[in-house]
Amino acid sequence: MKHNIMKKLDxxxxxxxxxxxxxxxxxxxxxxxxxxxxxxxxxxxxKSPEIIDGIDYFYSDGSLLQRLHNIFHPKSKVARVSFDYxxxxxxxxxxxxxxxxxxxxxxxxxxxxxxxxxxxxxxYPALDITYVRSxxxxxxxxxxxxxxxxxxxxxxxxxxxxxTPIQDQFIIDAKDNCPNVKLMFTCGGFxxxxxxxxxxxxxxxxxxxxxxxxRMVMHKHxxxxxxxxxxxxxxxxxxxxxxxxxxRRG
Length: 250
Known about the structure:
The chain contains 13 helices and 6 strands.
């Protein structure tokens, strides 16, 4: 059973299309849901197969998962893609400016989301951000009200940063409740990071690919993940994928 779920997630990572095609899908009637997987969220998603089914495209966020995926899936190698300024966040905002697409942001605390909006708009002054809200909800009624306001804002793009699996479930629910929104992204800690600094990552960090190191130094919960969760992920991933390959060869 676990191998079936793992294969399903790996297949979705393998078949993720060129990101430029994702952006152009906003012109279609079909809604598109995009999320990003790192070593921590990979393990979390394996416990939620219904979320894997509900997301259209998963991209490999982080060099460790990318390299492991490409070792075990040499015929469907992938590049690292993440929702931050070292990867595709700027591309999304530039596209929205160019096409006059409206954006909704959900994530962080009440103060963080307002500061993130301010910092994003300072870099993209023509961007039309029609709705912002924190990522903390008291109950389902609170979420339902947010969905109504997102729909009322006429947002074309929804960007949600609440952590896996909550953010993934949120955009899956938004698909049913916000039919006007055509493109939905999860973004992890991007909104909180952007509230701290307009371009969170130091240029040398982005160039060297050591984003995890900067996050580990700045945030306690990231240190805990790198020290505790990542080694467990590595052992589990290698064991399960070697077992899957051995089974197929047998």
